[in-house]
Design a protein that fits this description.
11 helices; 312 residues; single chain; alpha/beta; Rossmann fold; 4-stranded antiparallel sheet
Length: 312
């Protein structure tokens, strides 16, 4: 697959604050590409530059051979955008909103009717097309936003945290619609801070933090980044600060943390570690309920790269 988006040394500053810091990456045509990162990582600012809403401070972004600096109108004709929050007209019905969007793109009345009917059926809003959009639930508003973004039949769809604040059923529906559009050939750029969501729908994932790219790859490739250690979960009848401190002193233990009812150990290797730990707990007269290896998750990679500090 060819690259449909090429980003080189892209930077955006707001005064003295650098929101996006010299990032470079490529996005292949026909893939679902995910930007994963904590709040304030620079995901939305990157999307805003790619969709020509804001101009970069430096660097370049080329979409389907069109430069975002000089060919913004051509880019806007081939992309659709599903924003974080509802940005259509709440006082209009779903049908009226789509009709308005269609007229902006120069569609005829017949084209608008045909396209809006198809899209409203696709996002399961046909029965509610004459309801005022402002009275829709959060999930219905997001599905209407998706339909509006597709009125021009774009080649590339940007979805900026589209499932934030939705109930589980609405999140599942949005993911299924995203996969459907991708199967139909649409390239999708998807931002999220939900590791499970990124792993379920994205072909390629770029983890961003503090405006920089921390890592990129498939979910499995990212997990292999932390293959230099293994995770073991230990359940004891009683967990004390003293036993945690003793575990940290063991030469084969990288770290030991008490999370909930479990002790989570990062160890240097797998071979013989169960025997060593069993012997350790036996000598300490600790009663072990269970010891088991846990395979690395995308969340493990995410925390490894972005740490546990709270973000504003």
């Amino acid at each position: 697959m060819k690259n449909i988006i090429e980003i080189k040394n892209l930077t955006k500053k707001f005064g003295n604050f650098t929101a996006v810091n010299n990032i470079s990456l490529s996005i292949k045509e026909g893939e679902i590409f995910g930007f994963l990162g904590p709040n304030g990582a620079g995901k939305t600012t990157t999307i805003n530059m790619l969709t020509t809403l804001i101009r970069p401070t430096s660097g370049t972004a080329v979409i389907d051979n069109n430069d975002t600096f000089t060919q913004g109108s051509r880019i806007r004709s081939i992309i659709g955008v599903v924003p974080q929050s509802f940005s259509l007209f709440p006082e209009l019905t779903a049908q009226e909103n789509l009709s308005y969007i269609g007229r902006l793109y120069g569609l005829t009345a017949a084209q608008i009717n045909e396209r809006s009917e198809y899209l409203l059926n696709t996002v399961s809003l046909s029965e509610h097309k004459d309801r005022i959009a402002g009275n829709y639930s959060g999930g219905m508003k997001q599905r209407l936003s998706l339909a509006a973004s597709l009125m021009s039949n774009p080649r590339i769809l940007f979805m900026d945290e589209p499932t934030t604040g939705l109930d589980p059923q609405s999140r599942i529906s949005m993911r299924e619609l995203t996969k459907l559009l991708n199967k139909q050939g649409m390239t999708i750029v998807y931002t999220t801070h939900d590791m499970d969501e990124a792993e379920k729908i994205c072909d390629t994932i770029t983890i961003m933090d503090n405006g920089r790219i921390a890592a990129s790859g498939t979910s499995e490739e990212l997990k292999r980044m932390i293959a230099d250690h293994h995770t073991i979960e230990v359940e004891l009848e009683v967990i004390t600060k003293e036993i945690i401190a003793e575990l940290k002193k063991l030469p084969y233990v990288i770290s030991a943390e008490h999370t909930g009812e479990l002790i989570e150990l990062k160890v240097k290797g797998r071979e013989g570690v169960f025997y060593k730990l069993s012997d350790f707990f036996h000598r300490k007269n600790e009663k072990v309920v269970e010891i088991k290896f846990r395979e690395p998750t995308l969340e493990d990679v995410f925390i490894h790269l972005t740490k546990k500090d709270l973000r504003d």
